[in-house]
Amino acid sequence: MALLEVKDLKVRVEEREILHGLSLTVNEGEVHAIMGPNGSGKSTLSHVIAGKPGYEVTDGQILFKGEDLLEMEPDERAAKGVFLAFQYPVEIPGVATMTFLRTALNAQRKARGESEYSTPDFLKKVREVSKSLNIPQDMLKRGVNVGFSGGEKKRNEVLQMALFEPSLCILDEMDSGLDIDALRIAADGVNALRSPGRAMVVITHYQRLLNYIVPDFVHVMSKGRVVKSGGKDLALELEASGYTQFEDAA
Amino acid sequence: MNVAVAKTGSGRAVSDLFASAEGRLPGSPDVIAARREAFESYERLGLPHRRIEEWKYTDLRALVGEVLPLAAAPDAAALKRAADAVKAHAIAGACKLVLVDGVFAADLSDVKALASEVSLKALREMLDKDAGLLKTASTDAVIALNAALATDGVVLSIADGAQLSAPVQIIHVATAASASAFTRSRVAVGKGARATIIESFVAAGAKAYQVNDAVIVAIGDDADVAHIRLMDDAPDAVNVTSQFVTVGANTKLNFFNMTTGAAVSRLQGFITFSGEGSELAVNGVNLLKKTEHGDTTLVVDHAVPNCVSRETFRAVIDDRAHSVFQGRIIVRPDAQKTDGKMMTRALLLSDEAEADNKPELEIFADDVSCGHGATAGALDDSLLFYLKARGLPEKQAQALLIQAFVGEAIEQIADDGLREHVIGIAERWLEQRS
To answer: Domain ABC transporter: where (chain A) (predicted)?
Structure first.
């Protein structure tokens, strides 16, 4: 079934329209890549799905599991299973990573009417997940992302994804600022989370990331619209020919 | 001399305050004469107002109006209510010394549990023996009023070399509504001693009461002292507290204050280094809501060379509340190699919240390192969004960021249990606002 349906979405930031009628359907278990040049509206799409303030939706709709996502607060969206892995995860000094993870996980569970994790159960779960992602325990004691390298920040995003078990993961420019080794570790973490019940939208400027996270579908965005969709080979085609052709098409 | 009779807002003559209190004030005729003199000095000045520079942001005439009559000495019912409040606010493992409506309550206090190196007397027993107890080097009107009307307090003396494992917690409990309590205490910490002193201000059901407290702290050389103050008064109370602290040589003093209540509160601290090689950390937190007014005014006097002072102040201001921080660092001409810094940050949670920060450096020596910084701002939207995108509802996301904001000051409390207790008070404040 359709997990995410974006229908003819028009979005303004201040006085400027960024998305001019974008449509996208993502089914359970699918991995979609959204590619496009800088300024094509890729990150705007991810922000609007997650509910970041500052964007005005002037037309269209976003349905998540058939429900109107735009009516929900960001925290409600998270509890329903929407997860945005940030391009630039923020540093939150003074909030220990462990405290943050437990507060967030339990807030989501509470919103869904599920029982909250006890401290020992939570610790066990975090240890398992962080071990599989090669995240040292002392990193979890530090403030959220404080002093983390680019790779550590992205791994922390993947750790959260693994803990919260969302049904839709949006990865916004996950490869930005990562060297090849860091990228591989993060991508391995993401691949381990691929499952029939979970969909992913991978937003990236470069084809490189898609060597590690192989998509089922590739969409090319230009000037606020999806201008071409295809299979994973489309990404390779783009790598060879560049985005220029689509800029004219749009 | 021709003195016009000053009237308060309610028409009560100011001088009635002393006349009606006089019968209850402890002390020999000499002490009473000294009190009367102090009261006359208060009468001449009246309550501080905004034209007095030190009180510019805390105009007691406008905010408080008048000083309420002295609370009656607590009866059995009041002591019973106070006992319940003490239970709720006692810090685990601490030796409690309880003052109820301005009177030392031995039955509610852990007098017998005090370490043998600690001597304790009630102020009322000591006034005749030690005339200095009512004297301070200050011309401030509220301090003069305190000298005139102080009914009781604790006089603590911690012997040289004493290593106190249990903190001493002085708990001020208000049970009498619409009345005032005047207390004065003295804490002397001997050479090489190590101690933790906690002061808590709480209400036992009382409303609209006023507290005027003064504490004189003298710390000897080579000592290590943690001094924690928790001003957790009823929301419509007034609390004006003055602290006079002298720090000996090679001593460490870690001072912390948190204000979480009172319609109007002011902590004025005057801390003087009297010996070289000492380190002072002053950390403060104001958590204010509704129309509360909280003022922390600190004067750190580097009277001698080679001392370090660090002031970290955090204010969280919601609704129409008003937080004031005035920090003055004085470096005397001889006080070379002074290292004095203060940083104050205010977090404004509403458009109508107000923060006034007034840092002042008065430096008369030339080989010093001093600095100050002040910021005021709202919660960071990008951090709020990150937390909300991870499932935290708005208020919970705010609470987590506010805790982190004040955490920097609270973390300076070394004792784990004490720090958790303080965090608990801050958490309760945060829960009440959501």
So the answer is: 4-248
